[in-house]
Specification:
The chain is an alpha/beta fold. It is built from 7 helices and 10 strands. Strand 1, helix 1 and strand 2 form a beta-alpha-beta unit. The structure holds ligand LARABZUK. The site of the ligand O=C(O)c1ccccc1NCC(=O)[C@H](O)[C@H](O)COP(=O)(O)O has 26 residues, from strand 2 and strand 8.
Length: 228
């Protein structure tokens, strides 16, 4: 059986040079933020100009409805919409279940069972989930309780997000079993500006884990599913 490879998404890309560094060091997905209040906001037309090579392109949306999301997906040449607001299952279906990465907030729930129950409501209308810290927004640089997530069984593949960096990844890799990781402010020198040294080191840690440290290398991770 082929060992599974963790997905790596680097979010908050605003510059061609950063997209190239992410791809060169092995990112699978890159994210663009279309929330105007974010310091990482990028206009759809500018995102369209950024060449991401073989990396899949994700747009992050907070307040846009399905029609706006679909329009920006076309204009920015996106593969996936990361729905980080109060987007309900109907909205996810209107965007297209095969294109939706739905964000969930473990800190809104008393326990993992509550989180899993909310995720189950979206099982048929998302292709992947992303678990982020805080109760709204994103890019805060705060981590989740990794140990509390160690027992999560998700209905679809899922990414762990929130405050991940070369400093915090070792503990996340040890305690949690997602299908991949989403990294953002932990790889920046300033909001929207990635530091290539941090990008390289974070992805190196994940790929080293892929190759050497996963005792379940022949077993499904997280949900046991895959995307793409
Ligand atoms: O990054 C932002 O500025 C942002 C603003 C509003 C909504 C979402 C946003 N980011 C989405 C992401 O997927 C981030 O990568 C995720 O929140 C983790 O960020 P960080 O804690 O900085 O690693």
């Amino acid at each position: 059986m082929t060992p599974r490879r963790l997905l790596v998404k680097v979010c908050g890309i605003t510059r061609q040079v950063d997209a190239e560094a992410c791809v060169r060091h092995g990112a699978d997905l890159v994210g663009f933020i279309f929330h105007p209040a974010s310091p990482r906001f990028i206009e759809p037309g500018n995102a369209a100009q950024i060449d991401t090579g073989r990396a899949l392109r994700v747009g992050v949306f907070v307040e846009q409805d399905a029609a706006e999301v679909r329009d920006i997906m076309d204009r920015a040449r996106l593969d996936y919409a990361q729905l980080a607001g109060e987007h309900d299952p109907q909205c996810c279906r209107a965007v297209g279940p095969g294109r939706v990465i739905r964000v969930f907030r473990p800190q809104r729930h008393a326990d993992v069972a509550g989180l899993a129950a909310e995720m189950a409501q979206y099982a048929q209308c998302m292709t992947m989930a992303l678990l982020d810290a805080g109760t709204a927004g994103g890019g805060h640089g705060r981590t989740l309780d990794f140990a509390a997530l160690s027992t999560l069984r998700a209905p679809v593949p899922w990414l762990l997000a929130g405050g991940l960096s070369p400093r915090t990844l070792p503990e996340a890799l040890r305690l949690v079993a997602p299908d991949g990781f989403d990294l953002n402010s932990g790889l920046e020198s300033a909001p929207g500006i990635k530091d290539e040294t941090l990008v390289r080191e974070a992805i190196r840690l994940i790929r080293t884990f892929d190759e050497t440290n996963d005792p379940r290398a022949d077993a499904p991770r997280g949900s046991g599913g895959c995307i793409g």
